[in-house]
């Protein structure tokens, strides 16, 4: 286990994006858990939405009076190969979980549980990578409340993978998911479940106005660094290279759009997180499929400010997922007033209201995806209207201080329950 150092953040710095009512609600929620010791545990400090949220969340928690810490697993590559299969299995893929995979997972989580440092009032374990630690930790720390925060899409999990985690889930004191439907799949014994929507950090280089950036961030946001042509229509999908994001389906939709908008471009902006060994394989498949098309660009591991610039340069941002826990990339695009065409799966319809701040399409409907992209490319007034509405949706519902308030309310409830034991 390793501790992660976060950059200090003050609540006052969010004043420009919060109304007075929201600010007061966040302060009240944090005031109810001042000095509570909270530790977040996940698989990596960099790459992916969980790490992106935890960096500012932990820093802001400390600014508002919590005693918050963040620790990450120490694990071999083989562990992440197994946890990627587990991730897929919990999202409905039926590939078998072998005895060797089970052993690799159990050995690694046992080593990390033994290395867990420090007592806490609440420990939040994020995603399947950490779930296997809970039994050992709960035995060693009987006065601690253990929360499992699942960020993935549990709409139709493989029964074999739920069975693998049955004992771990039975030890959970409280579960947090992004949609009520996800909780229905979990065999949680008597544990309660809370729905908490993820959120973006408006002060991060990925989400700040480009004019506010300086130094290396400003340089990374310079579109001249990237192969896209700012004078041509641009479709963008921002996501890791993952089969669940259906990048080849995005290519098919782009090709249909190109029939009526011949100068359209497509950019994939994708990271290669440390805990996702499948990414290279998917990247190579997309690269092979589009190698002869100079208007398709595969951009990997851009700095956050570069992702920001690409989302703002896009005429349409796609999120054509087949499964999706939430998709912070949707909130990121909406915050920048870029209209989104997203699949009607998982957490995407929590953010996109069809025809009001973007469009929803069925996940495998290439024709509908292409049609909605064409509408937005050909009607600037429509695109502007949806973009304006999208930013307001995020301001009201999906900014980081609201996420902190939700967690604080949960921690307060857990603390009260502990006092009643």
From TrEMBL:
GO molecular function terms noted in the UniProt entry: glycosyltransferase activity
Residues forming coiled coils: none
EC number(s) per entry: 2.4.-.-
A Pfam short name: TreT_GT1
Keyword presence, Glycosyltransferase: yes
Domain Trehalose synthase N-terminal: 40-183
InterPro entries the UniProt entry points to: Glyco_trans_1 (IPR001296), Trehalose_Metab_GTase (IPR052078), TreT_GT1 (IPR049438)
Residue intervals of the Glycosyl transferase family domain: 227-392
Any GO BP: glucose metabolic process
Keyword Glycosyltransferase appears in the UniProt entry: yes
Assigned keywords, A-Z: Carbohydrate metabolism, Glucose metabolism, Glycosyltransferase, Transferase
Enzyme class: transferase
PANTHER family referenced in this protein's UniProt entry, alphabetically: SYNTHASE (CCG-9), PUTATIVE (AFU_ORTHOLOGUE AFUA_3G12100)-RELATED
Assembly information from the UniProt record: Homodimer.
Similarity comment text for this entry: Belongs to the glycosyltransferase group 1 family. Glycosyltransferase 4 subfamily.
Protein name: Glycosyltransferase
Organism: Halomarina rubra
Source species taxonomy: Archaea, Methanobacteriati, Methanobacteriota, Stenosarchaea group, Halobacteria
